[in-house]
Amino acid sequence: MLTITTAQLEAYRAQTFCLRPELRLRAVKQALDYVNARGFIFFWPIKDALLPSLWTAVAGDRPVADQHDDPGHVTWGWKDEMLARKQWYYAKVLRGKATLISLAVAPYFYALSENFGDPQQDYLDQYAAGLLSREAKQVYEALLREGPLDTVRLRRVTQMASKAGASPFGRALTQLQRDFKILPVGVAQAGAWRYSFIYAPVHHHFPHLPQQARAITRGAARQELARRYFASVGAATVADLRRLFQWKPREAETAVQTCLANGTLIACGVDGVAATCYAVPDAALLAENLA
Fold first, then answer.
1. Rounded distance, CA 93 to CA 109, Å?
2. In whole angstroms, what is the distance from residue 71 CA to residue 48 CA?
3. Does the global pTM surpass 0.90?
4. β-sheet bridge partners, residue 198
5. Which of 8, 71, 143, 257 is most buried by its number of CB atoms within 10 A?
6. Average pLDDT per run of 10 along the chain, which is 291 residues long?
């Protein structure tokens, strides 16, 4: 079994995370190409979640700066610029955090959601089954009824504009984004900071996404996302995979074992890691790239 050293793994991630200075992203077109190449990345680096991020690919491996004029914050402008252009999918998805997803990969995420065909009915079935909060139902119905709304207007329409309604409203937005029901589609100059996301139902903004996902089984979706994850991070454990996607243990294990069987992943060892790790399939090429 291939054994990967810590130095080799760091060298691999220096490439896939764009940590090397010559690989840093300097334009929004490069950012789009990077998201398409990786399939999905975080917007900010997330503690205890191993995955490339747009911030790191632009600013390097350093904490997100508090100063608004830090050069790394060009990512904020890129994100806002791209919201209405429909060239990538942006929402709070993985771990409930801001995630950028390639449009080619978004159907695999959607296939794992609780959306099964009729966006006007699926959420009612979820609510009846106790899988959707009352506040999330209110927010979703408001967007179905009113069309795109900025956060300030959306809170008013759903009667969650009070201070006490802030937390339930925030949780509702995250739940609906994680389940691919709503997403930010623009920015409005609203609220105290004159900055407010505009939200819309996913099937209104990306009308072809439900149909694109329909033919993808949940097993196939997990296999594709797992393969792309290991390709981004070089090597990792099943536990790492499970923590990122928050899949059930059997779901993560089945995805990895199926990828092993069809040759899209290989088992490997990593220095200092007791558990078996997994990596992209061509062991010789991997070792060469990591050297």
1. 9
2. 25
3. yes
4. 150, 186
5. 143
6. 88 93 97 98 95 97 88 92 95 98 98 91 95 97 97 96 94 98 95 90 97 96 97 96 97 98 94 94 62 57
110-209 CATH, one of 3.40.30.10, 1.10.10.10, 1.10.1740.110, 3.40.640.10: 1.10.10.10
Q: Angle between the 166-178 and 134-146 helix axes, to the nearest 10 degrees?
A: 70
Sheet of 235-236: strand order equals 2-4, 266-270, 277-279, 235-236
